Amino acid sequence: MYPSIICPTEGPDKKDDMQFDRAKSEGKELTKEEKQRLRKEKKQQKKNKEKKDDKASQESEKEKKPLGSAAPASQPPTQSTTQKAPSAVPAPAPVSVPASEAPVLADKPAKSKAELKAERRARQEAERASKQGKKGETGQQAATSKPKAPPNELQPVVKRLPEHIQVDNPDVLKKLAKKLERQQIPLRMDYGYKVSLFSHLHQYSRKAPLTQQVSIPSTVIHPAVVRLGLQYSQGIVTGSNARSVALLHAFKQVIRDYTTPPNEELSRDLVNKLKPYISFLNQCRPLSASMGNAIKYIKKEISNIPSQCKEEEAKSKLLNCIECYINEKIILAAKAIAKSAIEKISDGDVILIYGCSSLVNHILCEAFEKSRKFRVIVVDSRPRLEGREALRRLVQKGISCTYVLISAVSYVLPEVSKVFLGAHALLANGYVMSRVGTSQIALVAKAFNVPVLVCCETYKFCERVQTDSFVSNELDDPDDLIVTRKGKTHLKDWQEVPSLGLLNLVYDVTPPDFVDLVITDLGLGMIPCTSVPVVLRVKNVDQ
Amino acid sequence: MNEEELVEYFRDQMRKDPDMASAVAAIRTLLEFLKRDKGETLLGLRESLTSATTCLTGVDSSVAVSSGGELFLRFISLTSLEHQDLSRCKKVMEERGELFLEKISMSRAKVAKLCHTFIKDGAKILTHSYSRVVLRVLEKAAGEKKRFSVYVTESQPDAAGRQMAEALRELKVPVTVVLDAAVGYVLEKVDLVIVGAEGVVESGGIINKIGTYQMALCSKAHNKPFYVVAESFKFVRLYPLNQQDVPDKFKYKADTLKTVENFSEEHPVIDYTPPSLITLLFTDLGVLTPSAVSDELIKLYL
């Protein structure tokens, strides 16, 4: 807001009347541009050598385009508001593993690695050149009103979809099977008839956990990870915070038991060791957004270990990092969020909560301890009935609660003063991804003009964009919907009825118009739902 | 500089230049306070500045004074003060304070420059109560030889709208004063609504003289654009969820806060307009949508 004196990296020819963010970004661009120029020169030399091979294999490699450029392609469209990050990313991206959950395509023995690399580099050059041209234009805009418009990407390829939402595509399934075979992890079979709208998602049965197909003792998968996988698939560990913490603890155990094989570097080998574990956990239960971010962080930390570091030192450093991550992003974040949220709870409030969110429960308990007078209405829904757990925790503290099922929500809302919701993830377009039923509650609350507050830690902010609950979701075991009442189990033989499908969705997305306020940590406190991409942008700049 | 001197200086500034925003006067006073402060430590300095701001809000309880004070403190301490010597630090802070003051005194001109282009020839404008920023915008538009007419609401309880009408008559702009209750009636005739703001909150909504929320609701119903003009020092770190959520210290005039015990008898003088009703905000940072306000605040505070 008040630029010139504050920003130290400002160019000499740009002085007053410049907005702070533009000054900051241009300062950073200059140094990154220099780095790119050096990289470019080096690559030009290499490129000239390999250019002949490149032209020859151009046609046969056209189908392989997604491999190389998907990694840089996946980054720029999602980081839609900055020009800085994409330019720095392309070089390391194809060489290291793409950090997103996109699977590594199986090796095609027909192509040689050198040809692929040369192909990739040529594409990067083209992209970077086009980006340089665009940078000249976009830098001149006095774009303060809105976050910067996405740079027009001249990507010639289609953005690659993650495999977990392409289950009805047999090629993708084949690739997945090959990959799992390579990592020696059993493939979990889908179960039962899938409703056609969701046939692109996996649907597993709880009665066939993956661990039954894993040999004991497993040589490939660490026992802590096997145990974790079982806990996930049986629903023993649920809730995004609980799953992330359990994951991080399991990885700590893995790191403790790890020894670097001879002639290998810890930074590269450990990452490779973690890949089959992550695939295994993914098979047991699809990874959540929070787990994805945690894994990204761990992989980054591991690859940042300097090669001359001794093994013991490296291991203790990693364990420390993980401890810090859990402490900062989950425990301390909860405290910070509770502090901001308590300002919004006044005496005489009637607060409505849905399901069981560890963060919302923490906030309510803290507020009660600070002697705020309020009562809580817990809304619950089948088949998980998680609200009972929340009810138990709140009543134990002495908070007066009411318990209703979601069908009664419009009956109960006129007496509610605020709605507190937890979130599984906050998407880059401001949509809130949470337990199924949340968007229903937000919609009804909006109709009654009741403010809806979402509480979410920043580590759950993810760069995905979704506008509906169909494209990417999780299908739980359909047998959970079967219930026995008065001795009769009506849906027992649902598989035999050809026109009957049972759908047990886990998540849904709530548009930002229904959410009045997001309470988060990192010193931000209360932000509107539309500012999530701003936070993502600022966080990426910091890192 | 003790409390009475502070208050006296502040009142003096307001008297000398009635056209100056109260926040600017407050910041001038704080700068003077900083210059005369005899503190020994930086922390003590910060604390005394904060208490000075609190004291000033006791005189003029508008949102702008408290937000201006907070921003001033933020701006002067945003640099890394590596100098060991406190007096050198103070010098740096004073310089930055002067710079801040210079920047914000130009903010009204910047806003006027941005906004007057949205006023087309032959436009009919509706505005609420007396706002110096809106006056400046209309002045600029009149200066550009645009022909427009203005409807001003009377804005009880202090009939500030009449003051606005007087000022507009001097600019030779055709103006009509309407009752606060006639906003719905007159809206079908107007093309756009422009109001000032006492404070711009984090959600992108505004806090302004009572009656603004009604006007915003009616313009939404009539599909007329609702523009807000405000300087950037009015951005405040509040996030009200509804009318009840606005802190009491902003709702009533400073004298009322001090003398009256039971607020349920008193009528608030401001209300909160949520961001969904606002089309655009014209600030010296540029033309912003309500969601961009949070963007700017995050950039400043993160």
From TrEMBL, chain A:
Superkingdom of this protein's organism: Eukaryota
Main location as per UniProt: cytoplasm
GO molecular function terms listed in the Swiss-Prot or TrEMBL record: guanyl-nucleotide exchange factor activity; translation initiation factor activity
Biased composition regions of type Basic and acidic residues, renumbered to the chain: 11-36, 50-66, 108-137
Keyword set includes Cytoplasm: yes
Annotated compartments: Cytoplasm, Cytosol
Basic residues bias spans: 37-49
Key words of the record: Cytoplasm, Initiation factor, Protein biosynthesis
InterPro entries in the cross-refs: IF-2B-related, IF_2B-like_C, NagB/RpiA_transferase-like
GO cellular component: cytosol; eukaryotic translation initiation factor 2B complex
Family indicated by similarity: Belongs to the eIF-2B alpha/beta/delta subunits family.
Subunit structure as annotated in this protein's UniProt entry: Component of the translation initiation factor 2B (eIF2B) complex which is a heterodecamer of two sets of five different subunits: alpha, beta, gamma, delta and epsilon. Subunits alpha, beta and delta comprise a regulatory subcomplex and subunits epsilon and gamma comprise a catalytic subcomplex. Within the complex, the hexameric regulatory complex resides at the center, with the two heterodimeric catalytic subcomplexes bound on opposite sides.
Protein name stated in the entry: Translation initiation factor eIF2B subunit delta
Organism: Acanthochromis polyacanthus
UniProtKB/TrEMBL annotation, chain B:
Keyword Protein biosynthesis listed: yes
GO cellular component: cytosol; eukaryotic translation initiation factor 2B complex
Keyword Ribosomal protein in annotation: no
A Pfam entry, by short name: IF-2B
InterPro entries per UniProt: eIF2B_alpha/beta/delta, elF-2B_alpha_N, IF-2B-related, IF_2B-like_C, NagB/RpiA_transferase-like
One Gene Ontology MF term: guanyl-nucleotide exchange factor activity
Subcellular localization: Cytoplasm, Cytosol
Keywords on record: Cytoplasm, Initiation factor, Protein biosynthesis
Superkingdom: Eukaryota
Main subcellular localisation: cytoplasm
PANTHER family on file: TRANSLATION INITIATION FACTOR EIF-2B SUBUNIT ALPHA
Subunit description: Component of the translation initiation factor 2B (eIF2B) complex which is a heterodecamer of two sets of five different subunits: alpha, beta, gamma, delta and epsilon. Subunits alpha, beta and delta comprise a regulatory subcomplex and subunits epsilon and gamma comprise a catalytic subcomplex. Within the complex, the hexameric regulatory complex resides at the center, with the two heterodimeric catalytic subcomplexes bound on opposite sides.
Role, per record: Acts as a component of the translation initiation factor 2B (eIF2B) complex, which catalyzes the exchange of GDP for GTP on eukaryotic initiation factor 2 (eIF2) gamma subunit. Its guanine nucleotide exchange factor activity is repressed when bound to eIF2 complex phosphorylated on the alpha subunit, thereby limiting the amount of methionyl-initiator methionine tRNA available to the ribosome and consequently global translation is repressed.
Family membership noted in the UniProt record: Belongs to the eIF-2B alpha/beta/delta subunits family.
Protein name stated in the entry: Translation initiation factor eIF2B subunit alpha
